[in-house]
Amino acid sequence: MAHTRINLGALKAFEAAARALSLTRAADELNVTQAAVSHQVRLLENQLGVELFRRLPRGLALTDEALSLLPAIQEAFDRIDTALDRVGDGLAREVVHVGAVGTFASGWLLPRLAEFARVHPSVDVRLSTHNNRVDPAAEGLDYAVRFGRGNWPGMESRYLMPAPLAPLCTPAIAQQLRAPSELARFALLRSYFVDDWRLWFEAAQAVPCGPINGTIFDSSLTMVQCALQGLGVALAPPSMFARELAQGLLVQPFDTALDAGGYWLTRLALKPAGDGASAFATWLERACAEYASA
């Protein structure tokens, strides 16, 4: 069936509301009134003959029909945005949307993006950071760099490099440490991977520490910032904080490192990769392989 009278405005209103699960936030994003968004969504529902949202007391929920429709609409808008980006400045350019866990983006990728731009001057990288919890479909990403074991359902994963975890702290704290077991005297800063410290103590053949309590960080970047202020010891990948270690702001007091996963380049298995995205993936894999073998 051809839906010749469905306009882009109604589809855009639905996409924004579905992504935000809120008519109010969708209206703010589109710079229109909530009533206008609601009207466009209801118009689309009437034309399709299905309900797209279930109205809840505190927001919206997607129906099965909406869940089926949303990825196709997002991909279509992504392709339109890419085409507009390529011709908007009069040049044939391609934009690659990349999401990267913040630790990898700050500690490794950003200093090397200039090299990619030099090798591929017609490809622009649009970079966003995340805390390892990312939805490539909802965010319209070509690729997402994640930390883990490579087992994300529905994703194609390519291994980039190892990222073993080790204690990192200020020199003042390091001077007070003679054995791994003494780390338990200080605040052990932790991420949502709650077993990492226990596993590190086992790898170090140290007396297991007791229950670890305190602040839980969703990013190694913020966790290490806390360690830099002398507020505890972080368990993070030293390779991503090479500058702080070289400057003497951080110290790795013990050599033991925990293999808790590595960095992976992931993409939706069913989403085709454009020329620019493929070029970025090839460059990134090569650069990471060279770094890991150096």
Question: What does the model show?
Answer:
There is one protein chain. 42% of the residues lie in helices and 20% in strands. The chain is built from 12 helices and 11 strands. The protein has helices spanning 8-20, 23-30, 34-48, 64-87, 102-109, 113-119, 136-139, 171-174, 196-203, 220-228, 242-246, 275-293; strands at 53-56, 59-62, 94-101, 123-130, 143-148, 155-162, 166-168, 188-191, 216-217, 233-236, 262-268. Helix 2 (23-30) crosses helix 3 (34-48). It is globular, with a radius of gyration of 23 Å.
How is this fold's topology laid out?
Elements: H1 8-20, H2 23-30, H3 34-48, E1 53-56, E2 59-62, H4 64-87, E3 94-101, H5 102-109, H6 113-119, E4 123-130, H7 136-139, E5 143-148, E6 155-162, E7 166-168, H8 171-174, E8 188-191, H9 196-203, E9 216-217, H10 220-228, E10 233-236, H11 242-246, E11 262-268, H12 275-293
Parallel strand pairs: 3-4, 3-5, 8-9, 8-10
Antiparallel strand pairs: 1-2, 5-11, 6-11, 7-10
Helix pairs in contact: 1-2, 1-3, 1-4, 2-3
Structural class: alpha/beta
- Taken as a percent bin, the fraction of beta residues is 15-25%
Query: Rough shape?
Result: globular
In angstroms, what separates the terminal alpha carbons? Answer: 58 Å
Number of strands: 11
Could you name the ranges where pLDDT drops below 50 across 5 or more consecutive residues? none
| Order of strands, widest sheet | 4-3-5-11-6
